[in-house]
Design brief:
This protein has 366 residues and is α/β, with parallel strands linked by helices. It has 12 helices and 14 strands. The chain binds 3-isopropylmalic acid and magnesium ion (MG).
């Protein structure tokens, strides 16, 4: 069966990291006999320039048609003045929402080789393996009404609405409980139920679901405390489940524990496990075009795609092993480079992963 993968490079470092990840996908697919049909499309600022919209109808149509999507990153200062509804980020939010990609999995794993690159002491982060499950199509990101209005006295007021339906909480809750059941069996639900009613309901639903998952131990934490605990004693967490905005913030913090946000992949899944795969980092306009970007988060996103949407767990493991091998060899992009390492460019890192993968597949077939 041929699987369709849509590749959406996006803006700035997006195309740079996607180029490397796409090569890795092609090489691993060839090695494992996976029939893939790769198609490329426009999103974000690149799409805005070409068609006047951050998510052209054509891109959305191809996305609906695809089994999986590989996305780089969107946005940049050149579009700061663009009308809010046309901003590159809106393209990303719209594709998540239109495809119903409610379940965002953001694993933060510390590769032992990178312990020195973490901003925390090695003993605090050694062996770190956290999964953040972020709700991605609801909450304050999408709540209505929203906008900036002018009050009677002429002052302007910005407003957003933080809403979650019970069904939305239950859906992300089940994904999180199921994920925890496959791991260490501990789930921490993060909310702000001491202040926000919407998260009082969130907590109530999580408590109710717990009865269906007797093997999972559920705990609750306020988001401010969770932010503190993440940098104080991150290894206490196994799976964290939280809403869209808290998940956005906490996953960036978790990323830094692993040495660099350039290492953090993600999967965004719909109810049928069709998914979009993207690095957690943004388009990093400050380093674009210089070969400084770390392609590993996108390459590791390819591994997640193989595992969750393409039913190819062995191929996924091979990609992860190849990444581990190049880190063993001391190759580092700028973001994870300490003095003892060999700093390499984005494409050299891609070359190294491809070479490691090919060597590994050769060994296995021998
Ligand atoms: C992320 C990003 C996006 C988000 C932005 C680019 C809209 O920060 O994927 O974490 O806030 O979801
Ligand atoms: Mg973010």
């Amino acid at each position: 069966m041929t699987r369709r993968v849509l590749v959406l490079p996006g803006d700035h470092i997006g195309p740079e990291v996607v180029r490397e990840a796409r090569r890795v996908l092609e090489v691993v697919a060839a090695g494992f006999g996976l029939a893939l049909e790769l198609d490329e499309g426009l999103i974000g600022g690149a799409a805005l320039e070409a068609s006047g919209e951050p998510l052209p109808a054509e891109t959305l149509a191809s996305a609906r048609h695809a089994d999986a999507i590989l996305l780089g990153a969107v946005g940049g200062p050149e579009w700061d003045q663009v009308e809010r509804d046309l901003r590159p980020e809106r393209g990303l939010l719209k594709i998540r929402s239109e495809l119903g990609l409610f379940g965002n999995l953001r694993p933060a794993i510390l590769y032992p080789q990178l312990a020195a690159a973490s901003s925390l002491r090695p003993e605090v982060v050694a062996g770190l393996d956290i999964l953040i499950v972020r709700e991605l199509t609801g909450g304050i990101y999408f709540g209505e009404p929203r906008g900036i209005r002018t009050l009677e006295n002429g002052e302007r007021e910005g407003y957003n609405t933080y809403v979650y339906k019970e069904s939305e909480i239950e859906r992300i809750g089940r994904l999180a409980f199921e994920s925890a059941a496959k791991r260490d069996g501990r789930l921490c639900s993060v909310d702000k139920s001491n202040v926000l009613e919407v998260t009082v309901l969130w907590r109530e639903v999580m408590d109710r679901l717990a009865a269906d998952y007797p093997d999972v131990e559920l705990s609750h934490m306020y988001v401010d405390n969770a932010a503190m605990q993440l940098v104080r004693a991150p290894k206490q967490f196994d799976v964290v489940v939280t809403g869209n905005m808290f998940g956005d913030i906490l996953s960036d913090a978790a990323a830094m524990l692993t040495g660099s946000i350039g290492m953090l992949p993600s999967a965004s899944l719909d109810v049928a496990s069709r998914g979009m795969y993207e690095p957690c980092h943004g388009s990093a306009p400050d380093i674009s075009g210089q070969g400084l970007a770390n392609p590993l988060a996108t390459i590791l996103s390819v591994a997640m795609m193989l595992r969750y949407s393409l039913d190819a767990p062995a191929a996924a493991a091979a990609v992860e092993a190849a990444v581990s091998r190049v880190l063993d060899d001391g190759l580092r992009t700028a973001d994870i480079c300490t003095s003892a390492d060999q700093q390499v460019s984005t494409s050299a890192m891609g070359d190294a992963v491809v070479a490691a993968l090919e060597a590994q597949m050769l060994e296995e077939s021998a």
